[in-house]
Write a sequence for this structure.
């Protein structure tokens, strides 16, 4: 089986889909790997590094894709996917992040072209798929980097310091959302010496918040149905969000740093912080909105910009994970390697077993049709049997 790794098309993306270490293992498993020239350069890997790992180098995109059965990329959504579909041939398989619930038509476009697609965002949250979970890897880095960015933006130091010039109080840091990104933000802020508090609508998050050294904030408005079967927070009613905002305003007014992490796959991020709430915050307070790409948890967030409103600094990072190119590539590449090894047979051929939960949930288009049930619903297509897939 020939695997092609292409150079990323998205502006500002610095990562690469596979590292030389991943290539070495896949070659040992019987795969042939071609890397588009300079694909790993921004992550710290030269073409020679890939040659040494057993790969060949494609001089351009066309050469890289020629004869490949499996094409790997980080981003394959919107314009990136449209461009790729003009370059791919029927029967090839594309793996990447496709925002399948936000862009369900992408699966139909791929199916119409005869391209098989696997959307990494749909990897199920089950034990045996943890090593393939790209979303958790990205969230881990995002949570860490959000705190580092906040530490750079705040006019305060995070830890308490006792100096000859007096005692400096620690910065109060509040994390909204205790998923993977939120918990990593809690742990990072705690290690930097801040006083850390966190809030999540899921009752189960309380113990997780405590486990990373933060103090859980309880607003006493929790909804009975707050967590999906996959472990994510569910979308809440407008009435619940209004109550949450009202109760949260007093908490935010005391904070030096606020990091928001609430995102809903395929939908606009919920507004947790209104402009009225920002007006009540301290001048010099910092908000880092990790949901900026999904519309933002703060009403005033501007994607890709750092703005100041009434003295409050608001950052809306765009693809914050790309600021950690090396480790971001390492985590993504390992996730991808584990998925590929799961998909290939002992003789090195690619095989889709739709009885397998990982394959069933992740494959969006196969042999000319959309096969993922959730995406078919979004496209108003009738359900199909597994046998038809």
């Amino acid at each position: 089986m020939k695997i092609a790794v292409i150079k990323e098309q998205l502006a500002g993306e610095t990562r690469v889909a596979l590292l030389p270490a991943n290539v070495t293992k896949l070659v040992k498993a019987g795969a042939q790997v071609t890397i588009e020239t300079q694909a790993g350069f921004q992550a710290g890997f030269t073409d020679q590094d890939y040659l040494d790992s057993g790969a060949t180098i494609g001089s351009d995109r066309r050469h890289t894709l020629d004869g490949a059965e499996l094409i790997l990329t980080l981003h394959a959504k919107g314009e990136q996917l449209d461009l790729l579909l003009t370059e791919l041939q029927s029967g090839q398989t594309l793996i990447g992040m496709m925002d399948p619930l936000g862009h369900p038509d992408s699966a139909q476009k791929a199916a119409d072209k005869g391209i098989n697609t696997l959307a990494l965002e749909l990897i199920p949250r089950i034990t045996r798929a943890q090593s393939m979970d790209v979303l958790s890897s990205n969230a881990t880095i995002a949570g860490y980097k959000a705190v580092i960015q906040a530490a750079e933006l705040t006019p305060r130091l995070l830890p308490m310091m006792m100096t000859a010039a007096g005692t400096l109080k620690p910065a109060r840091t509040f994390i909204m959302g205790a998923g993977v990104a939120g918990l990593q933000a809690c742990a990072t802020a705690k290690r930097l010496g801040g006083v850390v508090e966190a809030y999540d609508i899921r009752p189960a998050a309380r113990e997780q918040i405590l486990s990373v050294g933060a103090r859980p904030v309880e607003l006493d408005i929790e909804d009975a149905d707050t967590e999906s079967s996959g472990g994510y927070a569910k979308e809440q009613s407008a009435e619940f969000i209004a109550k949450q905002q009202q109760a949260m305003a007093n908490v935010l007014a005391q904070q030096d740093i606020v990091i928001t992490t609430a995102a809903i796959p395929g939908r606009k991020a919920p507004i947790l912080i209104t402009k009225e709430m920002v007006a009540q915050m301290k001048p010099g307070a910092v908000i880092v909105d990790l949901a900026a790409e999904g519309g933002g948890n703060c009403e005033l967030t501007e994607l890709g910009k750092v703005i100041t409103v009434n003295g409050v600094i608001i950052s809306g990072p765009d693809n914050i994970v790309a600021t950690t190119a090396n480790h971001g590539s390492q985590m993504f590449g390992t996730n991808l390697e584990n998925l590929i090894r799961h998909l290939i047979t002992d003789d090195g051929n690619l095989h889709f077993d739709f009885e397998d939960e990982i394959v069933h949930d992740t494959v969006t288009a196969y042999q000319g049709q959309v096969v993922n049930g959730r995406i078919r619903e979004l496209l108003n297509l009738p359900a199909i049997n597994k046998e038809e897939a």
